[in-house]
TrEMBL record:
Belongs to the ABC transporter superfamily. Coiled coil: none annotated. Signal peptide: none annotated. InterPro entries: AAA+_ATPase, ABC_transporter-like_ATP-bd, ABC_transporter_ATP-binding, P-loop_NTPase. It comes from Pelagicoccus enzymogenes. Keywords: ATP-binding, Nodulation, Nucleotide-binding, Transport. It comes from the Bacteria. This is ATP-binding cassette domain-containing protein. The lineage of its organism: Bacteria, Pseudomonadati, Verrucomicrobiota, Opitutia, Puniceicoccales. The keyword DNA-binding does not apply.
Length: 249
């Protein structure tokens, strides 16, 4: 469902010159699977996901999402994905219901089908109590539920989550993680980036450790621990990162 082949993204920086934010990243993710990108801030996770979501065009390499080429068929890719991050914006002057109706129409849903879908999501995500409240008046947790509903209004087969729990309280984070698990249980293809080890251990079927724009290693959590001889994922991550840093010196 998702295949990245040697994805590369470079930027020109006045002070640092040519910056290789993502360096020949390759991986595949299948339906009913959560594929995790684990790395520190600045490792290249967000840039990778933005290329998959057609927000950025790769400098080199390619990606297919739901069978569509991310560069040649960007509109088809966008129709096939839901994209959720902690920074997913809502229009403050719209109510929660109006927000869902608006994004439903953007995705080609209208009339009775739109009303049915909006009501379904309001019930599913327990938005009913504040469905007529303006988005700029909602709590952080309420906004995240509306953001979730917005991202799946069109029933996408692929979900992309870019550090969606960063800065959220425990209860709101649990809502997000439960939703990610639900996506996998429903057979969706899920790519999930994070720097939080506990989230990887709970959610990810496969995980790639990203360091300085490169995939350092890939496997299940158990396999990565075995590779490093560590019993704790955080220690395994640090060992791999330090080994890569030492090799580059």
């Amino acid at each position: 469902m998702i295949e990245a082949k040697k994805l590369t993204k470079t930027f020109r920086d006045r002070k640092r010159g040519l910056v290789r934010a993502v360096d020949r990243v390759s991986f595949t993710c299948q339906p009913g699977q959560i594929f995790g990108l684990l790395g520190a801030n600045g490792a290249g996770k967000t840039t990778t996901l933005r290329m998959l979501g057609t927000l950025l065009e790769p400098t080199q390499g390619s990606a297919t999402v739901a069978g569509f080429d991310a560069v040649k068929q960007p509109e088809d890719v966008r129709r096939s994905i839901g994209f959720l991050s902690n920074g997913t914006a809502l229009y403050g002057r719209l109510t929660a219901r109006e927000m869902l109706e608006y994004f439903g129409r953007l995705n080609g849903i209208d009339g009775a089908a739109l009303r049915v879908r909006v009501n379904e999501l309001i019930e599913q995500l327990e938005i009913g109590e504040y469905q007529n409240g303006r988005c700029d008046k909602l709590s952080t947790g309420q906004k995240q539920r509306v953001s979730i509903a917005r991202s799946i209004i069109h029933r996408p087969p692929v979900m992309i989550f870019d550090e969606p729990t960063t800065g959220l309280d425990v209860m709101t984070s649990q809502t997000i993680m439960s939703f990610i698990e639900q996506c996998r249980d429903e057979g969706l293809t899920v790519v999930f980036s994070t720097h939080i080890m506990s989230e990887v251990e709970r959610l990810c079927d496969q995980v790639a450790i990203v360091h300085h724009g490169k995939i350092a290693t890939e496997g299940t959590v158990s396999e990565i621990k075995q590779q490093t001889g560590e019993q704790v994922l955080e220690n395994a991550f640090l060992k791999i990162a330090h080994q890569l840093d030492d090799a580059q010196r």
